[in-house]
Design a protein that fits this description.
Strand content: 5-15%
Oligomer: single chain
Helix content: 25-40%
Distance between the termini: 9 Å
CATH topology: Amidase signature (AS) enzymes
Strand order of the largest sheet: 1-3-2-6-8-7-12-13-11-9-10
């Protein structure tokens, strides 16, 4: 399981590796490791093997659909797959007769199918994506592959854990306040949040539609680009997504000269764990050695959560009224926090959001890329959070502190591995670029990745065969 999607694509195309063999291998690993990690809620083994056999026949006949053809991947269980229940990790949609059984694929799933990807199943998450720990789930918490006594992060915890442990070669997650990048950092993989509107959210259960993004989790920056190329959708319902999809793979033909890297130390570097701070300082030195220009900058960081809370409550209002007992208690508490937000306050917050998205563009007159730690602290232990439940939300807010602003700004942002703590837990580096400048972001991220070895490291469970 050490091959990247890019490498596998060549081997599948020249028929030196079979999609059926790959899928069998992933399903076997899921069977062995999912009891340990709890990364998958639903495994669609029969349909995955059917898709793999179809991919094999198509490739044999010369109908090669692209680099994802025959590649087994997972889908966060908040994204609709036709004929497979979407649980959102909640009893609201998991128990008969209330099971949510979609008849249509989400738009991102349609695009994956057109690219020939093999869908392994639906992955565990923080209930309704309303949290950063993946501790709160009707199906139980997700465990970190590097240390199963620790959290995997969230809300796309199952997606990140599965990629890190080699249960699939990529996953599709969602990100409203950091839910792709936070678990990517904690599980030592790459997590990419594209520009707001670049990837369609149709068929994805919303948390807060003004901030929701869909994106890939992979083991390398190049693989993230391959995934995003397929996921990107010019037909997005978001009216701001009127930018044609560029060739992201061409981003890696050359490193951009005179790259200006902005370091916003205030806020993003406050109260860092010492080991995280040391790893990020080393990452800055590596960028400096790549002949980039390092600039300290100041950012006005938005922290208001009024609109997010109001939108979350608006979606859940009818369920809260009809069946509040089917939520996990902590999720219900978070949803109800938006119940008394007035329409006036929500409208004000929406206007402030648009102003913030306009203002952030001016920052990129002076820099090309922003650099911060992805998460200020290493992953907490599950037992400690269970023993102190009143600390769960404060811990999550700390973990999401550095990722949340980039959802407000709606700009493309990526987390890449940049080191480990003395306890062997991964540390993430966060990079961001101007809206619709994903190519620059990918170029910078891959330049760092190629200058280091962090992305090549795997947890011990990933070596199990």
């Amino acid at each position: 399981m050490t091959y990247s999607i890019g490498e596998l694509g060549h081997k599948i195309r020249n028929r030196s590796i079979s999609p059926v063999e790959l899928t069998h291998d992933c399903l076997t690993r899921i069977e062995k490791l999912n009891p340990l990690l709890n990364a998958f809620i639903t495994v669609t083994a029969e349909s995955a093997l059917e898709q793999a056999r179809l991919a094999e026949r198509e490739i044999f006949r010369g109908k090669y659909l692209g680099p994802l053809h025959g590649i087994p991947i997972g889908i966060k269980d908040i994204i609709d797959v036709a004929g497979v229940r979407t649980t959102a990790a909640s009893a609201q949609f998991s128990t008969p007769p209330k099971e949510r059984m979609p008849t249509e694929d989400a738009q991102v799933v349609r695009r994956l199918r057109r690219g020939g990807a093999v869908i392994l199943g639906k992955q565990n998450l923080h209930e309704f994506a309303y949290g950063g720990s993946s501790m709160v789930s009707f199906f139980g918490e997700v465990h970190n592959p590097w240390d199963t006594t620790r959290i995997a992060g969230g809300s796309s915890g199952g997606s990140a854990a599965s990629v890190a442990a080699g249960l699939g070669f990529a996953a599709v997650g969602t990100d409203t306040a950091g839910s792709i990048r936070l678990p990517a950092a904690y599980c030592g993989v790459v997590g990419l949040k594209p520009t707001y509107g670049r990837v369609s959210t149709r068929g994805v259960l919303p948390l807060s539609s003004s901030y929701d993004h869909v994106g890939p989790l992979t083991t390398s920056v190049y693989d993230a680009a391959l995934m995003l190329q397929v996921l990107s959708d010019y037909d997005s319902p978001n009216p701001s997504a009127d930018h044609p999809v560029p060739s992201l793979i061409s981003a890696f033909d050359e490193f951009p000269g005179n790259l200006r890297v902005g370091i916003p130390r205030a806020f993003f570097f406050d109260d860092l764990d010492p080991e995280v701070a040391a790893a990020i300082d080393q990452a800055i030195h590596i960028f400096a050695s790549l002949h980039t220009e390092i600039r300290d900058i100041k950012l006005e960081v938005p922290t208001d959560r009024t609109l997010a809370s109001a939108e979350a409550y608006a979606y859940h209002k009818s369920l809260v009224e009809k069946s509040p007992e089917l939520y996990q208690p902590e999720t219900l508490r978070r949803i109800q926090s938006g119940a008394n937000i007035s329409a006036h306050d929500a409208l004000r917050a929406s206007r402030e959001l648009q102003a913030s998205r306009h203002t952030i563009q001016e920052v990129f007159n002076d820099v090309d890329v922003l650099l911060t730690p992805t998460v200020p602290i290493p992953p907490p232990k599950i037992a400690e959070l269970k023993a102190n439940p009143d600390q769960l939300r404060p811990q999550e807010l700390t973990m999401l502190r550095n990722t949340r602003p980039f959802n407000v700004w709606g700009i493309p942002t990526i987390s890449v591995p940049c080191g480990f703590t003395k306890d062997g837990m991964p540390i993430g580096l966060q990079l961001a670029a101007a809206p619709w400048r994903g190519i620059v972001l990918l170029q910078a991220a891959q330049a760092y990745e190629q200058a280091t070895e962090w992305h090549k490291k795997m947890p011990e469970v990933a070596r199990i065969t």
